[in-house]
């Protein structure tokens, strides 16, 4: 199969491209650095030509509320139009578990907007929703105030990016589910405990303080906001294993 991977140079995308190649598929990494821009449309029609499936694992260069919403709206509209124009038979997008339960987060509102455009596109689709990647722990810490990292204790079930990429790659060469596939990691932590464990293992001395009123990217979290449902796929890599790797 030919699969065009939008964001194919990124953390998830490069792993998806490698896995598809290992399984004998033609995977095309599409990103600004390879001459494909979903905002300007540059190179898009050529990239999707003759593709059986389109995988969108791109991300906004800016996480400011308005920027990220504009990115996913414009990018997804352009991708849907290009996919329709070339007869792509399966549109796969990577989203975030619980996005619809966290409307105070500008980033997660943008992911919901992206999902809605895909659902409304009329294209056969699969939405893969993942929990937070282990690799994202530093970004979570950096997003809180300098010095002390203050985070809510709400539950999080983080997952290795490689395990998410495996699900995305497998989904892209399977039949469209026209719905959602969730994937999370094998263990549940409090958000503060997860970040504390990663910072300690990296010898990052910042103090991590748990506070139920603290916000995670603008939103309050309860125990279940970011947890996947009971039928979610489970990535096998445990946090301690990943930290040791
Ligand atoms: N972080 C998490 O914990 C988490 C959890 C669940 C879901 N997700 C989702 O996972 C997806 C992938 O995240 P990631 O961490 O792998 O992203 P990443 O490493 O930041 O990669 C982003 C990719 O998007 C590309 N890109 C940026 N602007 C583009 C444009 N205008 N046109 C085409 N491509 C563009 C980049 O290309 P260049 O290399 O050329 O800049 C890069 O290939 C995101 O949609 C995110 O919402 C993330």
Fold and architecture overview:
The structure is a single chain. The protein is an alpha/beta fold and 245 residues long. It has a single domain (2-244), classed as Rossmann fold (3-Layer(aba) Sandwich), CATH 3.40.50.720. The protein has helices at residues 11-22, 44-48, 65-85, 106-120, 137-142, 161-172, 191-201, 239-244; strands spanning 2-6, 26-30, 53-56, 90-96, 125-130, 148-151, 155-156, 180-184, 189-190, 207-210, 233-234. The strands form three sheets. It has a seven-stranded parallel β-sheet with strand order 2-1-3-4-5-8-11, with helices on both faces. α1 (11-22) links the parallel β1 (2-6) and β2 (26-30). The protein is globular, with a radius of gyration of 18 Å. It starts with a strand and ends with a helix. The structure holds NADP nicotinamide-adenine-dinucleotide phosphate. Residues 6-7, 9-13, 31-33, 36-39, 57-59, 61, 94, 96, 111, 130, 132-133, 136 line the site of NADP nicotinamide-adenine-dinucleotide phosphate.
Which SSEs are present, and which pair or pack?
Layout: E1 2-6, H1 11-22, E2 26-30, H2 44-48, E3 53-56, H3 65-85, E4 90-96, H4 106-120, E5 125-130, H5 137-142, E6 148-151, E7 155-156, H6 161-172, E8 180-184, E9 189-190, H7 191-201, E10 207-210, E11 233-234, H8 239-244
Parallel strand pairs: 1-2, 1-3, 3-4, 4-5, 5-8, 6-10, 8-11
Antiparallel strand pairs: 7-9
Helix pairs in contact: 1-6, 3-4
Bound molecules: NADP nicotinamide-adenine-dinucleotide phosphate.
């Amino acid at each position: 199969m030919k699969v065009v991977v939008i964001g194919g140079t990124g953390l998830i995308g490069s792993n998806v491209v490698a896995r598809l190649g290992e399984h004998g598929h033609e995977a095309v990494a599409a990103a600004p650095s390879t001459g494909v821009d979903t905002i300007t449309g540059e190179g898009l029609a050529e990239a999707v030509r003759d593709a059986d499936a389109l995988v969108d694992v791109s991300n906004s260069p800016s996480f400011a509320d308005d920027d990220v919403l504009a990115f996913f709206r414009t990018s997804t509209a352009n991708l849907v139009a290009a996919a329709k124009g070339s007869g792509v038979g399966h549109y796969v997008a990577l989203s975030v578990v619980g996005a619809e339960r966290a409307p105070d987060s500008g980033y997660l509102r943008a992911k919901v907007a992206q999902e809605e455009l895909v659902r409304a596109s009329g294209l056969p689709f699969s939405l893969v929703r993942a929990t937070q990647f282990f690799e994202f722990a530093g970004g979570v810490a950096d997003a809180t105030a300098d010095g002390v990292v203050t985070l809510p204790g709400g539950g999080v079930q983080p997952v290795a990016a490689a395990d998410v990429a495996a699900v995305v790659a497998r989904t892209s060469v399977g039949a469209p589910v026209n719905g959602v596939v969730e994937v999370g990691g094998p263990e549940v932590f409090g958000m503060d405990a997860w970040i504390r464990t990663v910072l300690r293992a990296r010898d990052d001395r910042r103090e991590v303080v748990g506070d139920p009123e603290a916000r995670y990217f603008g939103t309050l979290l309860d125990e279940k906001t970011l947890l996947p449902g009971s039928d979610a796929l489970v990535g096998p890599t445990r946090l301690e294993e990943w930290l040791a790797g």
